[in-house]
Give the backbone structure.
Amino acid sequence: MKLLVIRHGVAEDRDSFAASGQPDTQRPLTDEGRKRMRTAVRGLRRIMPRLTVLASSRLVRAAQTAEIVSKAYGGMEVITLEELSPERRPDELLGWLRSHQLGDTVAVVGHEPHLGFLVGWLLTGRNDSFVELKKGGAVLLEFDDPPSGGNAVLVWAIAPRQLRWLAEGE
């Protein structure tokens, strides 16, 4: 199984958005964030041409990012998972991951530092975050056995700038 971990794109400023009185869960991507994410996903398609399933946190900025990814991959369904919420423990995603076939390419869209801890836990089995995902960045992990803490292999970690550069080569 391959697990593509994607951090949401650039969102509205946290403090400015908080001044609006709306909850942070509703904070959207900026126009520039949407534009950069669309370009980054074109680059992502060059190195990851197929996805089996796509899931996202329920927070607006992640859901909007997942919709951009979905469109780039032919309009695939986006599954909303509470396990991708920023306050959840990384191991809470394990049951959902294990529900997929070993040949699948599973993509998830979420938030830092949750995703960094998820990647760290899947790689080492420890609750450590040592892979920082920039907004719009992605990490690809691979599993030979059903996913569990410590049995993932890091295939690549790529910054959003590099994904956008890959898109320029189309």
